[in-house]
Amino acid sequence: MGKLSFLAGAAVGYVLGAKAGVQRYEQIKALSSRIWQSDPVQHQVERGKEAARTQVAPAVADAVSTAAKATADRLRSERVVTSEAVAPTMEVRVETTQTIHEGDPLEPPEQPVHG
Questions:
Q1: How many CB atoms lie within 10 A of CB 99?
Q2: Considering the entire predicted model, what is its pTM?
């Protein structure tokens, strides 16, 4: 019964709407434009814009700043390297650089003999 009532109502609305046609649409459009341009509505629009500038924007900026700092701190903490891991790496780089600069640049560097 509910679907049948809905379809009957939709059909009646369509027929009445079609009879009203473009003229009624233009009346509704003109009325809504007049309401939008009215002083009370525009006053409320300006109050909303001002509230967004003075209250919402700073709160959003603070939230974004806090989130950025937290993300940066988390990324820094994940990239912490112990000094024991850095020292051997630096020694290998220094040895490799010295070997490359001492030999012919077109030949591969000689591997140091440890023994």
A1: 14
A2: 0.38
For 103, phi then psi, to 5°, come to: -95, -175
Give 64-90 pLDDT, tens digit per residue. Answer: 899 999 998 888 887 755 555 555 555
Triad 46, 50, 51: Cα angle to 5°: 115
Cα–Cα distances (Å) from 99 to 13, 64, 90, 107, 113, in that order, read 89, 49, 14, 11, 12
Specify whether the CB–CB gap between 42 and 33 falls below 8 A. no
Q: How far is the CA of 13 from the CAs of 9, 10, 90, in angstroms?
A: 6, 5, 81
For residue 98, what are the CA distances in angstroms to 34, 80, 90? 82, 28, 12
Amino acid at 39: D
